[in-house]
Every structure is written in C-alpha cells, then in structure tokens.
Amino acid sequence: MIDVTRSDLAPESLARRQSWNDDDVLLRLHADFHGKCYLCESKVQLRNLQVDHRLPRHTHPELSHDWSDLCPTCGLCNQRRPRYAEPPALLDPCAGEEVRTRLVQRLCLSSSEHRFRFSARDVDDLAATATAAELLTLHSPPHNAAKRAKAKELRDEIQRAHEALSETLMSAWRAAQCAETDDDVRAAHDKLDEARARLAPDAEFSALLSSALGDLVDAIALMINQQAAR
Amino acid sequence: MAYITRIQGTGVRNLQSLDVELPASEQQPFRHLLLTGPNGSGKSGVLEFVGNCLAACRSGKSSIDMSGGETHGNRTFMSEMSDERSSHIRLWFTDAFWKAQADDRAFVMRSPARRGQEWVPQPVRGPQELDLKTLTSGQGDTTRFLKQFLVNQRTQQAFALADGDQSTAQRLQRWFGELEQQLRTVMGDPALGFTFDRKAYTFRFESRGYAFDLDTMADGHSAVFSLLGDLLLRVQACRDALGDQTFDPTGIAVIDELETHLHLELQEQILPLLTSFFPRVQFIVATHSPAVISSVDNAVVYDLGRHEATLSRDYVGVRYGALMTEHFGISEDFDRRTEAELKELRELWANVKRSSDEQTRMQRLADELSRRSYGVAREIQLRMAMGQHGSDAA
Known about the structure:
The complex is a heterodimer. Chain A is mostly helical. Chain A is 47% helix and 8% strand. Chain A folds into two domains: 12-139, no CATH class; 145-229, no CATH class. Chain A is built from seven helices and four strands, in the order H-E-E-H-H-E-E-H-H-H-H. In chain A, strands 1-2 form a two-stranded antiparallel sheet. A two-stranded antiparallel sheet of chain A has the order 3-4. Chain A is globular. Chain A starts with 22 loop residues before the first helix and ends with a helix. Chain B folds into three domains: 1-119 and 248-331, Rossmann fold (3-Layer(aba) Sandwich), CATH 3.40.50; 123-216, no CATH class; 336-385, no CATH class. The A-B interface holds A 106-112, 117, 143-146, 148-153, 156, 159, 162-163, 166-167, 169-170, 173, 212-213, 216, 219-220 and B 303, 306, 308, 310-311, 314-315, 318-319, 321-323, 325-327, 342-343, 346-347, 349-350, 370, 373, 375-376, 378-383, 385-386, 390-394.
C-alpha cells in the first residue's frame, strides 16, 4: 500500500452527487496515485481502473461522492477487500507518510508458509494492524482456485521485482566494496541510483520494496561515502 | 439431442463424492466437463460409468439398473448401483427423453486412457464396404477401420467423377480438403502433404522433408489421429443411417487422459481443435494438464481431490505455474530439491542461534540459490554480506 498526496480540488463530476466514477475522477485518481492500485501497487490501465471507497459505502453512505474517500484499485483488489459490518480504523494512503512510517510490508524471509509479512510497526497501533490484516487477505484469497491462481500471479510479479532490486543492490554493494578510484565511486553511485529508480513512487510495488529493502539502500549509500572519503 | 447437465455420484470404487453441474442455456446448449484430480481419485471410474450409461441407453436399455430410473420433468436420470445401496452415479440430461433406442441424429464416443499405443497396422486391398453403424455401436476401438474408411471415401470420389456425379465428387473433395486442413493443424505444419497412393491403397504424409503413413506416425500424432478418426467415423455412421451426407450430428465424447502422448503445444491445441472440428459435441474429459484446462472458455473444470468446480474461462490467460500450484495443488512451480533448499535457507535465517556449521551451510545455500535467483535467497545473501545475522521475526 502506498502514500500519495491527493490533489486538492475534487473532480467536478462529484459535486453533482450522481456518480463517483466518471472519467474526470478516473483520470485524477490515475494521476494522483501514479497509475497504480493503491493496495497492491500493480500498474493499472485507465480503462481497468475501479474506484474503491476506503470507508465503505454501506457504512458511510454520506461519503459516496466524497473525493477524500475515493481510491483507485485494480479489479482484483476491489473484489478482495473484506466486507466489514463495522469497518475498523484503517491507515489513510493520503495522509502524508502514514503508511511508510506505521506499516511494515515485506517478503517473508523466514517462514515458508507465509509469503508476505504485513504488520504494524507498533503493536498498539490498531489502524496499522487492521490495515496489515486487510493486505494479508488481499494476497491470500480463500476458497476459489481461480482467485488463488490470480493471487499467485501477483505474488510472482512482486517476487520478480524484489529479485531484480536485490540484484541491483548486490551489484551496488560489490561496486562499493572494491571502489578505489573516483570513477569507481561514481559507478557505485550510479548502480545505487538504478536501485532508487525502482523505489520511485511511480514504480510498481515501490512502497512494498522500500519497506523491505530500503534500509539496505541507505547502508550501501553510507558505505560508498565512506569509501569515497578514503 | 440430450447433453449431460449434471453428474452426481458417491462411493463408487475409489470415488468419494462428486457433484458437478454443467449448466445449459439458450446461448450455450451444453458445457464441456474437464475432470482433474490426483491418481486414484476416481476419474477413470467416473468416465467409465458415464460411458456405460450412455452406451446402455443407445443399446436399448432405459436404465442400467434397477430402481434408479426416473423422469423428473425436463430431466431424466439413470443410475448405476453397485451392491451397496449408497453407491451410485446419476446423470441428468437436457432433453426430457433420452431415447432408449439408438438415435441416429446423435452419437456417443468413448476413448480410454491407453489409446494410441495399440495402433494396429491395417492392410487395405481396395474399397470394401463398412457397416459403420454396427461398427460404431459396440465399445471396441474404431480406429482399425479408419484406413479402410478413408480408402472408401477416396474411391467413391473417383467413381463419382467417372460417373459425372459432380455434386458427390465435389462434396468428397471438400471433405478431404477439410481433413487435410485438420491434419495440418494437428501436425503443426501448414505445408503438410497428404496424398493417396492408388496402387498401394494407402495415404502418405510428407512433412518437413520426412515421409510417413498412417502406420508409421509418431505416438502423439497417432493418438490425436485416433481421436479425430473415431469422431469422423461416428459422424459418418449417422450420415449413412439418415441418408443425409450433409447432416451434422450432435454427440457426447468421453475421453480419458486427453493429453496422453501429446507434447505441450499439442496439449494447448487439442481441445480447441476437437471442439472446432465438432462444434455440436459435448466433451467429457479427464486430464492432468494445466494447458488443457485453460485452453477453452466454455467448460467446467472439476477437481475430484478438492471437490471444487471452476469455470474454465476463469483459467484462460492464467499462467501454467499458477494453475499447477493453485488448481493441481503442488506446493511450488519449481523442482522439489530447490524447494527443500529454500525452506532450509529460510529456517536457518530464522535461527539466530545457529552453529558455525549452520552458518556456513546458510552462506552456501544463499550463494547457490541466489545464482538461480530464487525467492528471497538474494536478499538473505545481501544482508549476510552486509553483516546482518538473521532474524526470527523477518
């Protein structure tokens, strides 16, 4: 799940309070959220984009045309969000850096059963815990074999992006390790920049990858600077 | 014509339970059934019973057994009971009447799992009349008569030309043209040559510089050819019985292990081919292949291990690896050894109190698996390189 800055002015069609997925809404959501589903961070084409109400319509009907409650999803996440009788407090993707600071999202390194690890940084943070639970459900749909197959495809894509980033970081680390000349240092920085590009807000799965591997980026940057200082 | 709309059964041989609906509608008069499941889950048993039910109908029995036959409005079912009252299989059909007598406008085809292995070379010495109706009414393999049938067709075409019967000659020419096209698609060679040697009364193929005939085809191709041929013969039997050579009969084809002998590309193509060549036939098929279950969009895929039905169109476009794990239930879409190594690596990473031997082992696994870029091995390798020690929380 990502943090974005929502544009201030609500799309005009919402003022009429007749529909909440006119073209202007879709275009604006697509732009604000970098063309990604706010939940799984896959790139979504404009024509496949579905509008999700963060606080659901059946419990918060007054928000059905409220710009602040609308988020873009791929079709699959929209269906897989749990249906709450009473929605818990959840993290807001448009509240500064709330997601990045309060949520851990990563591939699970130790356990074989769970592929992803979503959790709150602070165990007492109920909104983050509820958000983590929701994300876990998205990636592990029950029952239906066809839905599970789609979820596995998503998992595989995330894994591929994760592997590509890890490889780039490994190259950067190796370059930093044996950097002797100024050119070497520059080459190491370039490699690290390549990695940072994969973590840009508009890159697929970037928030998840940042949460998973971001600490390594900083550590390698530090190393390069230390090498340069010598 | 009656198509099957539901199969329900329990306790028959090693079948635990089965209840699958094949809903028919105005737009879609039938759905195919693709049956999957682990070995020993009862796929072959189900197909055999379905075949027996259908065959019994056509040979004049209104029900195979005993107290099972009933008619409920639009549905008819027959049941086959074993000695225990609780074991049965029931079929539902679209038509109110599944005629007890053989209906010439429809046919049934059955193909067991061991097909293609018993292609018997067939010497043909000239045209010889075939009583197709009798030949196709039994349960035996009809492919023995395929060559004779083809020779008969060819000779009729020649006679018609000689007699000035243009319409018959052209009809047969079109028929051979279609057959050639079908064979080209099956063999994957648009330049396949299919010629009749009138001295030896045999058909020869030439593909990619290699010549062969019906008796020397590769196993995979002869498996497809037997399926194709069996269906063609049954279509012809209906046409002969009705005296209408342009009639397109309906039918039900029950085929066990459709993908036997077929390389992957043919596995992807076989069902689309058969359903396009015979669009009025309902296919009831057992398969182990992810390529087969995602190859058509108007089937129901039913897994006997999980007792779960899925519409095949929900599988179209899904990667085979995802089908392998989520439909067929294997744990990973890569080999077992790598799976075990990855599991070991993750367990070692979680064990922060590992011994120095285990540390060495972890390093070796991380390096080895990273080279093949597996899962989280690369991240573990990187963290180890940067001096991190692992974590049971990560």
